[in-house]
Amino acid sequence: MKYSLKQIEVFIATANFQNITLAAEALNMSQSAASESLKNLESQFDIKLFDRAGKRLQLNDFGRLIRKQAETLIDQAKSLELSLQQNQLSADLNIGATLSIGNYLAIHILSEFKGKFPTAKAALSVGNTTKITEQVANFELDVGLIEGEVSHPDLNIRPWMDDELVVFCDPKSELSTLSYVSDQQLSKAKWILREAGSGTRQAFDNAMQGVLHELNIELELQHTEAIKRAVESGMGIGCLSKVTLNDAFKRSSLIALKTPQRDFKRKFYIITHKDKYLSPGIRNWLELCFEYAELHNTYS
Fold first, then answer.
1. Which residues lie below 8 Å from residue 131, measured CB to CB, with a gap of 6+?
2. What is the C-alpha to C-alpha distance for residues 199 and 294, in angstroms, rounded to an integer?
3. Same structural domain for residues 19 and 99?
């Protein structure tokens, strides 16, 4: 096109104010820039749009003829700009989270996100750390919230929240009355654990170095609730994130076991692809995640 939207805006403002200085002020332009813009518009098409009488500019017949078209064009351009902005804010947001995070943390953040941005569409996928990492790396997910430590050349990996695993048993277990549980007692127990590839299992294996090969692993399950039910039924002891166990501890349906000789502290992480464009929707989600972490972190 031979004209710009800015030239059309100058034309309309000048027609409204009948003065180039006032038109420039309304558009936050210098008087010289507005005057040059209008001059170029007329010269590009070899036309005159105004009759000039001193500082007053009054539309001529041709100017009046195209004024309505010009105003319609600017209205349409503003409408398009608004649609583009709204689309950015409400574009589909695909979040991935590991089981503990997805079921116990991300759902609260998602609720707050929808409250602040009701037109935004967001989907939450749940899987283990390996799966979520692969999906973020393949651009299938916008953001991943994971429990395990990962290393990937294409991902930005940022520490997010503090967490701690807790060893637990059912109330009828003989371990439930002990002030602490020794490594020897842990080795003799039957274990109900998360599957290999999960962040929880990775953290557990790291914390149990030295006695890991001695453990009696009775079951490996993919779901946190299944592990809790199995332990409640007396099938063995388990080890899960504290955030998944708080309600059960309050009800006394499960009992936390003290293992001071083992360090079960860990971090949750946020991952994004290094080449992923962070849309306003993604940035809003990340901001809410870090605000949530500031409120709920329990140790440094």
1. 96, 197
2. 22
3. no
Domain that holds residue 67: 5-89
Q: Which of 61, 89, 117 is the last residue of a domain?
A: 89
Q: Does the structure show a pLDDT above 60 at 22?
A: yes
User: Do residues 298 and 162 lie in contact, with contact meaning Cβ atoms separated by under 8 Å?
Assistant: yes
CA pair distance 103, 100, nearest whole angstrom:
6
Whether the full predicted model's pTM is greater than 0.70, yes or no, is no
pLDDT reading at 161 higher than 50: yes
- The CA-atom distances, in angstroms, between 192 and each of 16, 187, 201, 287 are 77, 13, 11, 36
3-state secondary structure 122-140: EEEEECCHHHHHHHHHCCC
Mean pLDDT of 144-163: 94
Number of domains, the chain: 3
- CATH code for the domain of 172: 3.40.190.10
Give CA–CA dist 38/48, Å, rounded.
Answer: 10
